[in-house]
Design brief:
29% of the residues lie in helices and 28% in strands. With 365 residues, it is α+β, with helices and mostly antiparallel strands. It has two domains: 102 residues, Rieske [2Fe-2S] iron-sulphur domain (Rieske Iron-sulfur Protein); 196 residues, Naphthalene 1,2-dioxygenase Alpha Subunit, Chain A, domain 1 (Alpha-Beta Complex), CATH 3.90.380. The strands form four sheets. Strands 11-17-16-15-14-13-12 form a seven-stranded antiparallel beta sheet, with helices on both faces. A four-stranded antiparallel beta sheet has the order 4-3-2-5, with no helix packed on it. Strand 6 and strand 7 form a beta hairpin. The longest helix has 30 residues. The chain is globular. The two termini are 23 Å apart. 35% of the residues are buried. Bound molecules: fe (ii) ion (FE2). Fe (ii) ion binds next to loops.
């Protein structure tokens, strides 16, 4: 639908040209969130042109450890050799995906015709092929993807290499002595909403917290809520309340004690640090009206079963509350009756920054 995309681009250009500040701007029109063709357009404009979180380095300890995945149908693999290497997970022969899931291998061997690559992506064996004429294995290397690592987090770049904004994450992790954290477990949630609805909800500067998260609200000092804004990241911080040890809602002070930090990296990755916990929210687009959030949990210190059970339950409660509201937002966006609403400047600056940055991605800046 090229005409439709052109039409949207014109609207986004108009918006960009107006350049309205936070106090005067309105949030994006609903087509950003509801249209399948626009969703596909985001693959190249946003996701291929930003650093994408793909997994953790503790999954890749020994030589040959690998994991694979796909981003909007772009299959990748990350493998451990002397360092970490990432490639498109596509055999140079007939495009077969070389590996599935995660595991450990001694070489990257295509299951189809047995072509073998080493962990540098070099083609090493072409079984039973006989003379290959002018074919030169050197021209049949796997396509390598640029990789960056921050703390335990691995990021890949699938398109034009954009400016790396992860240094801000590095400093937050260092402040929290991230090396002490150990991976505890993962949860996956499917939400019937566009991926950006979840990100918007995360970036509202805590505005929704007193309304949507009564259990959490009892435990945090909302007056201490602060947001550090930047184009491609934000850091929200908040102190816990003292002396409020238990709550009917399932949350409890031990989980959020001290200062909590909520870090977002454009476009779709968050790291939350609270008490002795760290968790990540990896927002994966599925369809225009569906996304998947992968939560990975980490803990520093000795975690007993009871604390683990209570903490994960409290976290799940917050996630259920967010899921509920995100899905209600999507319903309103799908109605065709919404054309953007005001930002509340006191809280929603980071959400505005996110939309500004998306606009740049859409227009290829
Ligand atoms: Fe929330």
């Amino acid at each position: 639908m090229p005409n439709q995309i052109d039409n949207w681009i014109d609207k986004i250009k108009e918006r960009e040209k107006k350049g309205l500040p936070l106090e005067e701007a309105t949030s994006p029109e609903s087509f950003w969130y509801t249209n399948d063709a626009f969703f596909q357009f985001e693959r190249d404009s946003v996701f291929k042109n930003s650093w994408q979180y793909v997994g953790r380095s503790d999954q890749l300890i020994n030589s040959g450890d690998y994991f694979s995945g796909d981003l909007f149908g772009l299959p990748y693999l990350v493998v451990c050799d002397e360092g970490l290497k990432a490639f498109y997970n596509i055999c140079s022969h007939h495009a077969t995906c070389l590996v599935e899931g995660k595991g450990r291998v001694s070489e990257l061997k295509c299951p189809y015709h047995g072509w073998v690559y080493n962990f540098q992506g070099e083609l090493k064996k072409i079984p039973q092929a006989g003379p290959l004429g002018k074919l030169n294995p050197k021209n049949l290397k796997l396509t390598e993807l640029p990789l960056k690592k921050v703390g335990p987090f691995i990021f890949l770049n699938f398109g034009q290499e954009k400016k790396w904004e992860g240094n801000s994450l590095e400093s937050v992790l260092t402040d929290y002595s991230y090396e002490d954290f150990k991976f505890v477990g993962s949860f996956k949630y499917r939400l019937k909403c566009n991926w950006k609805v979840f990100v918007d909800n995360y970036l509202d500067g805590g505005y929704h917290v007193p309304h949507m998260h009564p259990g959490l609200t009892e435990q945090i000092d909302f007056s201490s809520y602060k947001t550090v804004r930047s184009d491609c990241f934000s850091i929200q911080t908040c102190s816990s309340k003292r002396g409020n040890q238990s709550s009917k809602e399932g949350d409890f002070l031990e989980r959020v004690e001290g200062t909590s930090s909520y870090f977002w990296l454009y476009p779709n990755f968050m790291v939350n640090l609270y008490g002795r916990w760290m968790d990540t929210n990896w927002v994966r687009p599925i369809k225009s009206d569906e996304c998947e959030i992968i939560f990975d949990y980490f803990y520093r210190g000795t975690l007993n079963d009871e604390l683990k059970r209570k903490s994960l339950k409290a976290s799940e409660k917050v996630q259920e509350e967010d899921t509920l509201i995100c899905e209600r937002v999507q319903k309103g966006l799908e109605s065709g009756l919404f054309f953007g609403g005001p930002y509340v400047p006191k809280f929603e600056g980071s959400m505005y920054d996110f939309h500004q940055q998306l606009m740049k991605s859409y227009l290829g800046f």
